[in-house]
Amino acid sequence: MSDPAAGFAETAEGRVHRLPLRIYYEDTDAGGIVYHANYLRYAERARTEMLRDLGYDQVALLRDPGIGFAVRACTVDFVAPARLDDRLEVATRLLSVGGATLEAEQRVERGGQLLVRILVRLACIGAGVRPARLPAALRQALQGLIHPTSAIFIMTLLAS
C-alpha cells in the first residue's frame, strides 16, 4: 500500500494531491504544443494516483466491490499552452463527495502558472455500468480531503 501522505499537500482549501509530469514529443502537435485532449489524460492519471496515494487501487476496486468511475461532466478552461519538455504539475482538489458522485477541480500548472483548469464530476458505477454507491471507507477517505469552505468555492467556480 502507498504512503497515505504521498502526493498530498495541505492548503487553505484542504488537501491537494499533486502529480508531477514532463511533456514528451508524443504529447505534442507539430508545433511542439501539447495537444488539447492530452490534458484530460493527465487529469485522469492524477485522479488515479490520488486514489492510489489514499491506498485504493482501481484494479482492486473493480474486482471487489466491483466499482469504477465514469466522467459524468467535464469543463475545461485552456489558459496557456504547455510545450515540449515542460515540467508540469496536476493539482487535484476534491470539492464534494456524495453517495455515488464526486466533484473535483484539477489544475495543470507550470512553475505555479495556471495552464488548464478542469472541473470534473465523476459517477461511481457498478455492474452493468449502473450507478453504485461509494463504499463507506472510500467515501470517508475522500471526504477527508475536502475543506469545509469548498461549498462556497464551488458556487464561485460555477458563477465564473
UniProtKB/TrEMBL annotation:
Source organism superkingdom: Bacteria
One GO molecular-function entry: fatty acyl-CoA hydrolase activity
CDD domains: 4HBT (cd00586)
Recorded coiled-coil stretches: none
InterPro entries, per the entry: 4-hydroxybenzoyl-CoA_TE, HB-CoA_thioesterase_AS, HotDog_dom_sf, Tol-Pal_acyl-CoA_thioesterase, YbgC/YbaW
Keywords, sorted A to Z: Hydrolase
Keyword Hydrolase: yes
Regions crossing the membrane: none
Family according to the record: Belongs to the 4-hydroxybenzoyl-CoA thioesterase family.
NCBIfam families given in the database record: thio_ybgC, YbgC/FadM family acyl-CoA thioesterase
Protein name (record): Acyl-CoA thioester hydrolase
Biological source species: Oceanibaculum pacificum
